[in-house]
Amino acid sequence: MALPSKTLSAACRQFSLLCRRFVGTTAVRSVHFSYVPDTPDPKHGSTTRMNLFQSITSALDVCLGKDPTAVIFGEDVAFGGVFRCTVGLRDKYGEARVFNSPLSEQGIVAFGIGMAIAGSTAIAEIQFADYIFPAFDQLRNEAAMFRYRTGNQFDCGRLTVRAPCMAVGHGALYHSQSVEAFFGHCPGLKVVIPRGPIQAKGLLLSCIRDENPCIFFEPKILYRAAIEEVPTGDYELPLSKASVLLEGSDVTLIGWGTQVHVLREVAAMAQDKLNVSCELIDLCTILPWDKDTVLASAAKTGRVLISHEAPVTMGFGAELAATIQSECFLNLEAPIERVCGYDTPFPHVFEPFYMPDKWRCLEAVKRLVNF
Amino acid sequence: MLTLVRSSTARSSRSWILGIQQGCNYATEATFETKPFKLHRLENGPPTTVKITREEALQYYKDMQVIRRMETTAANLYKSKIIRGFCHLYSGQEAVAVGMEHAITKEDGVITAYRAHGWSYMRGVPVLGVLAELTGGRSGCAKGKGGSMHMYCKNFYGGNGIVGAQVPLGAGVALAMKYQGKKNVCLALYGDGAANQGQLFEAYNMAKLWDLPCIFVCENNGYGMGTSAARSSANTDYYTRGDSIPGIWIDAMDVLAVKSATEFSKQFVLKNGPILLEAATYRYHGHSMSDPGTSYRTREEVQEVRQNRDPIGLFKSRIISSALVTEDDLKPYAPGGMNRKKSFDHKWQLTAKNKKADACFLLVIQKIDNDIRQEVEEAAEKAKVDPELPLEDLYSDIYSQPPPNFVVRGSDPTVMVSVR
Ligand SMILES: Cc1ncc(C[n+]2csc(CCOP(=O)(O)OP(=O)(O)O)c2C)c(N)n1
Ligand SMILES: [Mg+2]
């Protein structure tokens, strides 16, 4: 077989893998990015320090407090859920409103759809995005199409499905997947992924109140790693609106969830090492996505790098790239780059190699500017 | 209850116990009463009287101990961060895998979920194959590519991370066996939590419709993660949940009850189609290593089971008492018309006379325990330094016979690789 050429970055990763194995007892494994907190918008009122799971709890708390039809259910959510996102809510709002469901993803989502079409606000938790597929049929064939097929007599817009997603450093095949692209193919659904606590709370409240069924994927590595001053009250952030986190002139970097933070480091490295100015965009909403922000940036810089953890083939980056090339063809200075997961299952020990890390992204930036 | 059927004064010359037993007399075979079964849509259940030989008894004991020791070792490796990720231990449930494996053959199929370490060992994966899979080494039974939830060997189909998905697969394996005219069965195992997944009911129906040689086994350890069986299931009599499929409830802390029910079931399903076993058991650890396992149950509850219902402890005291007694021992107390049962009962009043055999047998057990400790420790040391597969194996095992010039696509031209 042809071997991958040993780039420096691959060598570095190989080394870190070895370190993990042989210094395993003492090495403290850190996340593969450094987290830069967002600053809260003063108009959203007073704040307190929260990590991402606490900001989710806060959003759910606000929702349950204001909307008497709202209920939360899923596997183990009554005890707080495996990632502690619903801690305390059963005690505060009672067993009738925050309850455990049996182990049945299809049942969880389907019951949620049923509740939503009959007028309840249904907030369902799927324990890991990897386990959403038993419910895929319900999401794709029921939730997404209900409004359309009934000529708008019924809809399940009051349904929100939350699920932790993306890599966590050691999750292997079934605790690491990024599944957003599967749902990107389902008109009628909204798909949202926050990059940190402030965003998570505002976007989740928007999803819950949005009149369309929403899937909210929470990057699980950020639950504890991301800490911000989060507004304690009720606020919403707009769906289908991307954030421009850094303004730049040479290259547009586009990501969502955890990858936004990797790309932020790439932007800094590109500035330092290559004197290249990067514009960083967090797409925030995968479906329907914010074309205006993305296309304006692509037209400005003429060079685009899209990066996600999901496999490259048919990842959501493919849709962005196709749209950018057709809308900004004459502005482009180089072929659009995608730095993504490989077309393999999410690997066990090889996770550090699979990840679209900052080194691979930086190489792509070099290719963009040297084209 | 124990009945001595045959005792022997033969001084065993079995060298594998290294002569420790010299001077001791053992029963070579004993009959035990199992804990009672509960039946669903069955007139007659499995025999509750089980006869086992001394070798069998020691083998079951050893198998359960290896699993227990292996899991304790895995827990320690996890705590020292040599094993990472998700790791689900089988401690407490050993009698299920051990009792079942000894009732089937290696040509029968088994499929289970992610709590698979004990089953992997019983199906033939060596301890190193389990531990190295956990550390991600190439000596792992899936070459380190699967990790904790994914272990496999011949006729052992794993090792499944998606709760419930393995059950219809197991029914499919049984269908293949039937279609191929084999006289084999497939055991499809799942938990009390998994029992509520819709696809199980689809599998029950198809298995019954086509009379497949499938033994569905619900390992009811009381909890699915933090949710107790009563909170998740409208009907917690899992052995009745196959509706028209007959079922048996087993006290699965009793390895002999498990074995008896499985032997019965194998014969049953080959003639009559599927059966559903509920193996009532308990897990000592949390759901996985990241769950301390104390927020949804009391420490006392766990302690109570460890003390009074531990499958290894129970079995150990049974075999010790069965081996205690020899005809010689009993002779002075069994004059004339006294039957053996009675004379056996007398034994409980005796201490002095029996002490010697008891002590000898304990030595045998201790020797087994020491050997196991050493075996598992050696495997753990190897697993710790077992190298990973080379990097190109990130890209292998995705397709067989890929199209010409097929490459696994990354996003970076330097890592476009062709596959083996
Ligand atoms: C489809 C799916 N949903 C959820 C999970 C997460 N999960 C893993 S194990 C488990 C509990 C299973 O409990 P049970 O079937 O009783 O098996 P036990 O862990 O007790 O052996 C859950 C919810 C999963 N792996 N797959
Ligand atoms: Mg269970």
TrEMBL record, chain A:
Q: Name one GO cellular component term.
A: mitochondrial matrix
Q: Which GO terms describe its biological process?
A: branched-chain amino acid catabolic process; response to nutrient
UniProt keyword list: Mitochondrion, Oxidoreductase, Transit peptide
Q: Which reaction does it catalyse?
A: N(6)-[(R)-lipoyl]-L-lysyl-[protein] + 3-methyl-2-oxobutanoate + H(+) = N(6)-[(R)-S(8)-2-methylpropanoyldihydrolipoyl]-L-lysyl-[protein] + CO2
- Domain of life, per lineage: Eukaryota
Q: Which InterPro entries match?
A: THDP-binding, Transketo_C/PFOR_II, Transketolase-like_Pyr-bd, Transketolase_C
Query: Can you give the residue ranges of the Transketolase-like pyrimidine-binding domain?
Result: 50-225
Q: Which residues form a coiled coil?
A: none
Q: Where in the cell is it found?
A: Mitochondrion matrix
Give one GO term, molecular function aspect. Answer: branched-chain 2-oxo acid dehydrogenase activity
Does the keyword field hold Transit peptide?
Answer: yes
Q: What is its main location?
A: mitochondrion
Look up the EC number in the record and give it.
Answer: 1.2.4.4
Write down a Pfam family by its short name. Answer: Transket_pyr
Cofactors that this protein relies on: thiamine diphosphate
Function recorded in the entry: Together with BCKDHA forms the heterotetrameric E1 subunit of the mitochondrial branched-chain alpha-ketoacid dehydrogenase (BCKD) complex. The BCKD complex catalyzes the multi-step oxidative decarboxylation of alpha-ketoacids derived from the branched-chain amino-acids valine, leucine and isoleucine producing CO2 and acyl-CoA which is subsequently utilized to produce energy. The E1 subunit catalyzes the first step with the decarboxylation of the alpha-ketoacid forming an enzyme-product intermediate.
How does this polypeptide assemble, per the annotation? Answer: Heterotetramer of 2 alpha/BCKDHA and 2 beta chains/BCKDHB that forms the branched-chain alpha-keto acid decarboxylase (E1) component of the BCKD complex. The branched-chain alpha-ketoacid dehydrogenase is a large complex composed of three major building blocks E1, E2 and E3. It is organized around E2, a 24-meric cubic core composed of DBT, to which are associated 6 to 12 copies of E1, and approximately 6 copies of the dehydrogenase E3, a DLD dimer.
Q: What is this protein called?
A: 2-oxoisovalerate dehydrogenase subunit beta, mitochondrial
TrEMBL record, chain B:
Q: What range(s) does the Dehydrogenase E1 component domain occupy? A: 63-332
* Keywords, in A-Z order: Oxidoreductase, Thiamine pyrophosphate, Transit peptide
Q: What class of enzyme is it?
A: oxidoreductase
Q: Name one GO biological process term.
A: pyruvate decarboxylation to acetyl-CoA
Co-factor(s):
thiamine diphosphate
Q: What is its EC number?
A: 1.2.4.1
One Pfam assignment: E1_dh
Q: Which residues form the signal peptide?
A: none
Named from the GO MF annotations, one term is: pyruvate dehydrogenase (acetyl-transferring) activity
Name the domain of life: Eukaryota
**What is the official name of this protein in its record?**
pyruvate dehydrogenase (acetyl-transferring)
Q: Which species is this UniProt entry from?
A: Pomacea canaliculata
